[in-house]
User: Which sequence fits this backbone?
């Protein structure tokens, strides 16, 4: 395949990446390779990347990278530092490579869960069908160069009470890790999945994750996603979700660390009476750049979607929010609510917020809103006038601002883990009680 | 308790307080009255430490310490309490959480142990009854969805919880109906002791029927121009401020 793209504009970026060993169907690989042959890194001239520059990712020279796996990781370290819930099955990946030695927990009944490289070609025939490749560099890269990932298939009618966890660790210098996940929740089935992204001794490394999600009729899926890679590393995530009728899909995206994070969350609501919940919280400092692009495409009537993204932006960091809601012509009786709110803590931080509604039906209830402001100084003074230090007063105010979005996280382990990370930063102690 | 000496303060270069002096001793209640724009709320703001105001000269001694040298929170920790004219709504911060944080920071400042959750809740129940504040309001977000009267009662509830040495009530009576006024005044009177003192800033004599002051001062053009006993308040109610203005302006 490398011959095919030798003359491409991204050659220097991909030349030392190994081709995927996941047995995708050939057509998919050919299609993705064709895209890579002609595509270049998008620039800020393209609308989807208007506020997000990719120069630093483009400049990663993977040829000089150290060994991709073999980090001195232990199960204890995973358990102590990265594992969010102690119950359920945990799969650990390092730079996209499955680490069975670090993974733990019991396989739930009624589900088939394995690394994608362990799947047979026949099992993956439908993989990639919903992922757009045309004009999509990172999806195409992820297809041709996917190292591994998780395949989760929940049988019809199966309810799994313990969360299924995926922990991804980025390690080493100049690493490029393409992680691919495929999730299918059968009819009337229910599951909860945690995806958490960390970095350990990593520098100038890049994780590119693509997750395909299929939520069948009347199925329930909740995804809790935590992005906490360290400074100096980059992360792009794409989730492509297909929802059938009567299904419920919830995703909580918490972004705390990492120099560069871009989330592409695309939800196609294909069946009637489906419910979609998107919650996001980003708490930025230093020079972080976090870009959340979401798209909810209502193709069928009688559906509800609720989107709430909130951000706290400090120092010289930048947040981007672009939330799109489509309501197609025949998708009547849709209730779609979208809200983005930001608090700026410094004079040098930036927010670019763009809520978008495109409605082609005539009997719908849709709203969107975006606010960006500062902490209420009068309230800070009020708290101080009662004996509370300025630092604590500001923490209380930030905590209060984030409370409604954090309260939407139903999984207590995930909430507690997020909380403990935030407590360390802001000295909070009161939400989880 | 507090000695204010020749205090000058300005905002945006405009002088509001022009040589204000006042002494308040433990156990006393002082009322400060005066026409609009006299500097009443500025005095409260300067004492509480609002940073928009610049103190250009003068001194404030609070229980042996230089008040003006302290941060807002340290003034509160030393026992100064301001009941706000316009209590601030803080969505998402619960009244109890906020008060427990305040109480514990004050205790820490004084080198005391933090209060247990059990003792704290018992205290909330006891003190909320002082101002007949529905205990349910105590667990709600600070002042959010409170009526005007409830906000003012919440101020006095906070005062009861924090047990300050000196309480400054900044127009706590404004906007209150007679029942709420009585409840607020009753709360203040209940909390009164030989060790603490109260400064009541008001526009109306009405409040002073309920909180009986030992001294009444008239603030005009940034200074106290007349002091007397509670009879002065009655006189002001009857005659207004014009005679005092005329008296001062003639000088």
Assistant:
């Amino acid at each position: 395949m490398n011959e095919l793209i030798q003359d491409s504009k991204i050659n220097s970026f991909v030349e030392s990446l190994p081709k995927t060993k996941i047995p995708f169907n050939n057509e998919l690989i050919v299609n993705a390779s064709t895209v890579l042959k002609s595509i270049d890194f998008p620039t800020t001239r393209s609308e989807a990347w208007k506020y997000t520059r990719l120069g630093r990712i483009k400049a990663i020279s993977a040829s000089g990278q150290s060994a991709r796996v073999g980090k001195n990781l232990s199960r204890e370290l995973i358990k102590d530092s990265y594992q969010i819930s102690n119950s359920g099955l945990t799969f650990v990946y390092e730079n996209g490579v499955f680490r069975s030695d670090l993974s733990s927990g019991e396989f739930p009944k009624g589900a088939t869960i394995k690394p994608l490289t362990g799947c047979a070609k026949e099992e993956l025939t439908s993989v990639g069908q919903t992922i757009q490749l045309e004009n999509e560099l990172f999806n195409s890269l992820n297809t041709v160069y996917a190292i591994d990932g998780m395949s989760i298939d929940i049988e019809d009618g199966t309810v799994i009470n313990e969360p299924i966890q995926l922990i991804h660790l980025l390690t080493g210098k100049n690493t490029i890790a393409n992680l691919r996940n495929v999730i299918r929740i059968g009819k009337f089935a229910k599951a909860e999945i945690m995806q958490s992204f960390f970095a350990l001794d990593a520098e100038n490394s890049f994780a590119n994750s693509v997750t395909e999600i299929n939520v069948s009729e009347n199925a329930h899926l909740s995804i809790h996603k935590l992005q906490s890679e360290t400074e100096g590393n980059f992360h792009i995530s794409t989730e492509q979700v297909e929802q059938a009728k009567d299904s419920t899909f919830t995703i909580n995206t918490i972004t705390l660390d990492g120099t560069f994070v871009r989330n592409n969350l695309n939800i196609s609501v294909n069946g009637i009476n489906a419910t979609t919940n998107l919650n996001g919280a980003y708490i930025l400092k230093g020079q972080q750049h976090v870009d959340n692009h979401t798209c909810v495409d209502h193709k069928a009537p009688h559906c509800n979607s609720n989107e709430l993204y909130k951000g706290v932006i400090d120092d010289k960091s930048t947040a981007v929010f672009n939330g799109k809601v489509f309501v197609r012509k025949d998708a009547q009786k849709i209730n779609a609510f979208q809200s983005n709110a930001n608090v700026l803590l410094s004079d040098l931080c930036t927010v670019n917020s763009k809520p978008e509604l495109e409605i082609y039906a005539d009997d719908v209830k849709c709203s969107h809103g975006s606010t960006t402001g500062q902490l209420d100084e009068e309230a800070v003074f009020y708290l101080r006038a009662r004996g509370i230090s300025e630092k604590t007063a500001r923490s209380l105010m930030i905590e209060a601002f984030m409370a409604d979005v954090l309260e939407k996280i139903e999984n207590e382990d995930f909430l507690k883990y997020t909380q403990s990370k935030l407590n360390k930063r802001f000295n909070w102690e009161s939400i989880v009680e | 308790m507090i000695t204010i000496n020749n205090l000058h303060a300005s905002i945006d270069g405009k002088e509001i307080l022009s040589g204000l002096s006042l002494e308040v001793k433990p156990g006393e209640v002082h009322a400060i009255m005066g026409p609009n724009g006299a500097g009443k709320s500025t005095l409260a703001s300067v004492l509480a430490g609002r940073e928009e105001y610049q103190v250009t000269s003068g001194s404030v001694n609070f229980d042996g310490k230089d008040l003006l040298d302290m941060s807002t929170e340290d003034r509160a920790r030393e026992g100064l309490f301001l009941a706000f004219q316009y209590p601030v709504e803080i969505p998402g911060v619960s009244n109890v959480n906020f008060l427990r944080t305040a109480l514990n920071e004050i205790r820490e400042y004084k080198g005391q142990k933090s209060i247990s959750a059990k003792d704290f809740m018992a205290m909330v129940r006891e003190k909320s009854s002082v101002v007949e504040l529905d205990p349910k309001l105590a667990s709600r977000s600070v002042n959010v969805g409170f009526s005007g009267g409830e906000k003012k009662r919440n101020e006095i509830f906070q005062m009861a919880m924090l047990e300050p040495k000196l309480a400054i009530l900044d127009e706590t009576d404004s906007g209150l109906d007679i029942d709420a006024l009585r409840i607020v005044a009753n709360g203040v009177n209940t909390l009164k002791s030989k060790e603490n003192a109260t400064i009541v800033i008001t526009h109306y004599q009405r409040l002073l029927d309920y909180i009986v002051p030992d001294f009444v001062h008239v603030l005009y053009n940034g200074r106290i121009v007349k002091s007397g006993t509670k009879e002065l308040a009655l006189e002001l109610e009857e005659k207004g401020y014009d005679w005092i203005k005329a008296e001062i302006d003639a000088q």
User: Anything to note?
Assistant: Chain A has eight helices and 19 strands. Residues 254 and 417 of chain A are 11 Å apart (CA to CA). The longest helix of chain A spans residues 390-406. The interface with chain B takes residues 376, 378-379, 381-390, 392-393, 396-397, 399-401, 403-404, 430 of chain A (CB under 8 Å).
